[in-house]
Design brief:
With 368 residues, the chain is of the alpha/beta class. The protein is built from 12 helices and 14 strands. The longest helix has 24 residues.
């Protein structure tokens, strides 16, 4: 893995995220505090007084696996818990892919979804979501990319960074394209809980070689817990165990205990953030309507990020750098996703940060 490509998104965050006053860059919802969890879901830290800091089982402790499976209507025996979705992606791809394998990856994408496979030595084919097409998934293009050598098709719906999604009809068409192959369908579903149209169906009910991943980071507002998971067939999880022995071994039992309590009350947190996302989407939609001469966008169908295109900005990184240094407003330049005329403009923040950040961005655009 020594030749793995740089994750430019993480480079950008290392440089600017922790100094941002107005974060309009992050792909997740507003984060919760311990005090809020105490109030909203009755989290009582005293319940952990008897917890002993032993190692946990490799795939995660049973109560957490059961809680995740219960909420997402799956089998706990097909759940693996990891230290964030990044580790889960790393484990799954190393367990299933070999040098020379052919995979298809939706593009643009979260860096790990492409770069881990490329570093293994896979032949990566990009399935582009195009701005000119409203970021609609083009199944005809996907059909041309799939062959009898395809080992895995990697998708992310609702999508980061564009906010695109996939209809039930498109899901069925996608599955039909895989019906006569041996390919896995790798579904990054970390944004499945926030939708503005019909949510995607569970791909596991449509295709038996589906692997999906989830996380407490994006729609739950708990990225600091570093809890991710996968739903996968038993034989896939057994292969992941080998790689887990050489990474983090297991999760912290304290983190697992908190995550188990969170999953037992998932609806409370998700409902709050879904409502907030809908209110914020209306705010950013009005803002985009007022700035059509400078930026064009495709309204997102899920998640809390959008991927607008600038009309007259030649150096998007320089623009975003000046914006954070002068105004304290953080965006992600599209170069982090290979799209130099776009930015990731997100709307998961609390309303005060969102409105102030957009106001400062408006002023900056006028002066630029």
């Amino acid at each position: 893995m020594s030749n793995i490509a740089p994750a430019f998104l993480e480079y950008w965050f290392r440089d600017y995220y922790f100094d941002a006053k107005y974060d309009l860059s992050s792909s997740g919802v507003e984060n919760f505090s311990i005090a809020e969890l105490k109030k909203l879901i009755g989290l009582d830290m005293n319940q952990f007084d008897d917890l002993i800091f032993n190692d946990s089982p490799t795939l995660g402790n049973e109560p957490l696996r059961q809680a995740i499976a219960r909420y997402y209507k799956g089998s706990p025996q097909q759940v693996m818990v990891g230290n964030g979705s990044s580790e889960v992606i790393f484990l799954l791809m190393n367990a299933l892919l070999e040098a020379g394998d052919e995979i298809v990856v939706v593009e643009p994408c979260y860096p790990a979804l492409r770069n881990v496979a490329a570093a293994i030595g896979c032949q990566v084919k990009d399935w582009p979501l195009r701005f000119v097409d409203g970021f609609e998934p083009d199944l005809n293009v996907l059909a041309d990319l799939i062959s009898d050598k395809t080992r895995m098709v990697v998708i992310n719906f609702p999508h980061n960074p564009t906010g695109a999604s996939i209809s039930h009809q498109q899901q069925r068409e996608l599955v039909n394209l895989l019906a006569n192959t041996e390919a896995y369908l790798f579904w990054d579903a970390v944004f499945i809980d926030i939708n503005y149209n019909e949510p995607p169906q569970n791909f596991h009910q449509l295709y038996d070689k589906t692997i999906s991943i989830g996380s407490l980071s994006k729609t739950y507002g708990l990225p600091g817990l570093r809890v991710g998971w996968a739903f996968a067939p038993d034989d896939v999880l057994n292969r992941c165990v080998h790689w887990r022995d050489y990474t983090t071994i297991c999760l912290s039992p304290l983190i697992e205990a908190i995550a188990t309590h969170v999953m037992a009350h998932a609806e409370v947190l998700l409902d709050l953030r879904q409502q907030q996302a809908c209110r914020n989407l209306a705010i950013i939609s009005d803002w985009m309507d007022a700035h059509q001469e400078q930026m064009q966008w495709v309204a997102p169908k899920g998640g809390v990020s959008s991927f607008p295109r600038f009309a007259d900005v030649d150096d998007i990184e320089n623009f975003c750098r000046r914006l954070i240094l002068r105004e304290g407003v953080l965006l992600v330049p599209g170069t982090c996703f290979g799209h130099p005329h776009h930015v990731r403009l997100s709307f998961g923040a609390n309303i005060e940060i969102l409105q102030t950040g957009l106001l400062l961005l408006s002023d900056f655009l006028q002066r630029s």
